[in-house]
Design a protein that fits this description.
β5 and β6 form a beta hairpin. 46% of the residues lie in helices and 10% in strands. α3 runs antiparallel to α4 and α3 runs parallel beside α8. A 6-stranded mixed beta sheet has the order 1-3-2-4-6-5, with helices on both faces. It is built from 12 helices and 6 strands. Bound molecules: uracil (URA).
Length: 271
């Protein structure tokens, strides 16, 4: 054993080797300091110091930190939406909104397209792949069919004339992964933004494209029963229609969709 007074110079080679081997045996695998340091020689903590350290511990034990305040995404969405005084401000507010997980999986925010002066607002469901890439609603196959349907009654999202223009947006501004249906929670969280969006555009009437839009606007689904029957959504006349993506899969349903388009045209022109 090495005596306390033994100086390092006094250790011969074989003893030093034996000591090192013993340390390795004990699990030492790294030298932290260049010079040896005896932990036993550190000054002892005085009782007064120990007491002063114990006080905050005692305090925190008797007064645990308050529980974290639960975020209320719908209330936050409502507050953010109500502060937006213009479409640009609303877009920025949605862009800054972090309570909807869809945002994290999406490439782009899909806000709207068309003419904000339009009398007709088309409310779709959520962006698909092409919309996510382009950052514009209804630009994929379903969107091209929608453009043809609107053109058949003289409406065009690119029109500068409010009478023949259309404004297009979606319930959800971010693409759900694998195009799954948005959850009721996601719809509820984003609904205040939709409501504000419609308020800012202030259209005369709304087309609710598909079940998700009916859910957001009317609080119910069942598009095949509801289609063609005017209702009230967001405080204005609203016409539920089957989604163009459904029409692509079920061309036979185009007959009813045509009847609904004529009903929209009649309401617009007043006869
Ligand atoms: N379907 C929708 O409902 N919205 C889009 O933007 C694209 C497809």
């Amino acid at each position: 054993m090495v005596g306390e007074s033994m100086h390092i110079d006094a250790i011969d080679w074989s003893l030093a080797k034996a000591l090192l081997e013993w340390q390795v045996e004990m699990g030492v695998d790294e030298a932290i300091l260049d010079a040896p340091l005896s932990r036993y020689e550190l000054p002892e903590t005085s009782p007064a110091k120990a007491a002063s350290v114990a006080i905050p511990e005692k305090k925190s034990a008797s007064a645990p930190p308050p529980p974290p305040v639960e975020a209320d995404p719908v209330a936050d969405a409502r507050a953010a939406a109500s502060r937006a005084g213009s479409l640009d401000a609303l877009r920025a507010a949605i862009d800054a909104f972090d309570h909807c997980d869809l945002k994290r999986g999406a490439r782009n925010l899909v806000f709207a397209d068309g003419n904000p002066a339009a009398r007709v607002l088309v409310l779709g469901e959520a962006p698909g792949r092409e919309e996510d890439i382009e950052g514009r609603p209804f630009v994929g196959r379903a969107g091209q069919l929608l453009d043809r349907m609107l053109a058949a009654i003289g409406l065009d999202r690119a029109s500068a004339n409010a009478e023949s223009a259309v404004y297009i947006t979606n319930v959800l501004p971010w693409r759900p992964p694998q195009n799954r249906d948005p959850s009721p929670e996601e719809i509820a969280i984003m609904r205040p933004f939709v409501e504000k969006h419609i308020g800012l555009v202030n259209p005369d009437m709304i087309v609710l494209m598909g079940n998700i839009s009916c859910d957001a606007g009317l609080g119910r689904r069942g598009i095949l029963r509801m289609r063609g029957q005017w209702a009230e959504a967001f405080g204005r006349p609203a016409l539920p229609m089957v989604h163009p993506a459904y029409l692509l899969r079920n061309p036979a349903a185009k007959r009813e969709a045509w009847a609904d388009l004529l009903s929209l045209k009649a309401r617009l022109t007043g006869h």
